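Summarise this fold before class:
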Amino acid sequence: MSHYAAGRVMGDHADGASKISVVLAGHVREAVGRQEETATQGSVAIKPGDVVHRNQFGPAGATMISLDLPPDLLALSEHGSLARWRWCHGGPLTAMAIRLWLASRSNAQTCLAESDAGIEFVAQLDALGQGPEPTHRPAWLRRVHERLQDAPFDAARLSLLAREVGVHPVYLARTFRRHHRCSVRDYVHALRQTRVLQRMATSSQSLAEVAMACGYADQSHMSRDCRRHFGLSPRQCRNWLRMAPP
C-alpha cells in the first residue's frame, strides 16, 4: 500500500516489474507518451514493467495498493491483456484485483496462477479486452461517473440518473455498459467494496460504522459481502490492510 502526497508529480519512470494497482482513495493522472488517463477511487491499472509513465496526484493525494505480477500469472492471459498498459475504471475487475492483492498477502505460499483469485482476474481482464474500445465518451456519461463517485448509494437508480443527465434510462444503461463493460449496479457494488477497504485501512471506525458509511443495511450484510468477494472476513481484511507497509 502506498500513500501519495497532494499534488505530487513523478516524472518519467518504469516500475521494472509488471504490476496491477488499485486506487483506494483520491485521484491520479497517469500518462504514457501522448496517452493519458485520470483515475479515481476503484480504478485499476495494468502496468507492464518496461512501460515508461509519469504521474500527477490530485489535490487530496491518493492511496493505492499494488501487486507485482509473477511470470506464471502473466502467462495465463490468452490475449496478452497483462502485457499492455491500460486503466479500467471500476466494475467487477476492481473487486477481483483487490481479492488478488489480499490473497497474495494472506497466504505467502499461494501460487496466484493456480488460485481462484488469479484465474478469475485474468479471465475478466481478457473478457474486457474483447472487441474495440469505445472512442467517444459523451459529456453526460462523465457526469454520471462523477455522480456515482460523489454519492454512489444514493444515485444507483437508473431512472434517477437518467433524469439528472437528460437521457433515456435504457440508453444510459446501454452506453454505460459499452464504456465500462459492466452494469451501473455492478459498478456501484465494486465501488462500495473499494470504499469499505479504504475506510478499514485508513480510519479507526468500527466495522459497524464502516458498514453504515458504505451503504450496507448492517455489519452482517457487509461481512457476507466481504467473504463472498474477497474470501476473507472484514476483520481479516482490516488486519492485512494494516499490516501493509506505508
Observations:
- The chain has ten helices and seven strands.
- The beta strands are 2-4, 9-13, 19-32, 35-39, 43-47, 53-68, 86-89.
- The chain has a mean pLDDT of 86.
